[in-house]
Design brief:
Length: 217
């Protein structure tokens, strides 16, 4: 899923707040899955889309640093595994923020519109990575997670779900230097190495693995 030449040193323990909850943020956009034979809630257990969860994450990120910029939406279950949570918590959204002049990364988890946890981490590099993350501007005509899922259904996803009715899906959104657009990758949470599909987050078209795009163009 990602070159394995980076590990992370957790600087602050994950702060969990299970009791708190908040209202969801509505985007006003129609649900593109409403015409499919699969109701959204039975497919995507996140409870809200990535962009619906983002305003609360942004608010918390600005409390951490007023210059914080979104750099990644990593897979939820992968982050929970990295943080020793066992991947058994509610299906929330993780957001990774940082500032361009610092190696410290700030991770926030939002569940149903509420802050569920946050932590700082700093990458320890064994060698210079062959890729660099670019900031992600969600106002730049980028497809939300439900739109990426709808694109997957247009490209074989319905067949996969008919054979794996109990699948739990996970997402990743990244933009790498050298790539034209950010890319949504959709995973079966049982396999966070091999994506089910990669979707260009601007055009909605099937695309190449984002790391392969910049490492082996």
């Amino acid at each position: 899923m990602m070159p394995k030449n980076v590990i992370y040193l957790l600087v602050i323990a994950l702060a969990i707040n299970i009791a708190s909850c908040g209202s969801q943020y509505a985007t006003g956009q129609p649900n593109p899955l409403s015409s499919t034979s699969y109701p959204l809630n039975s497919i995507d257990k996140h409870g809200q889309t990535a962009f619906e969860a983002y305003p609360r994450a942004k608010e918390e990120a600005f409390r951490w640093n007023e210059e914080a910029i979104l750099y990644q939406i990593p897979p939820t279950r992968l982050m929970e595994s990295n943080l020793g949570l066992g991947g058994k918590g509610p299906a929330g959204w993780f957001f990774m923020f940082k500032t361009p002049d610092s190696p410290v990364e700030f991770y926030i988890e939002i569940v149903d519109g509420a802050l569920y946890g946050k932590t700082e981490a700093q990458p320890i590099l064994f060698e210079e990575p062959s890729y660099r993350l670019k900031p992600i501007d969600l106002d730049d005509n980028i497809l939300d997670s439900d739109m990426a899922l709808e694109a997957y259904f247009r490209n074989g996803g319905e067949k996969y779900f008919s054979k794996h009715p109990d699948v739990n899906i996970d997402y990743r959104l990244i933009h790498l230097e050298g790539a034209d657009h950010p890319v949504w990758s959709i995973f079966d949470s049982a396999d966070l190495v091999n994506a089910l599909i990669h979707i260009d987050a601007v055009t909605g078209q099937v695309t190449q693995d984002p790391f392969e795009q910049v490492i082996n163009p």
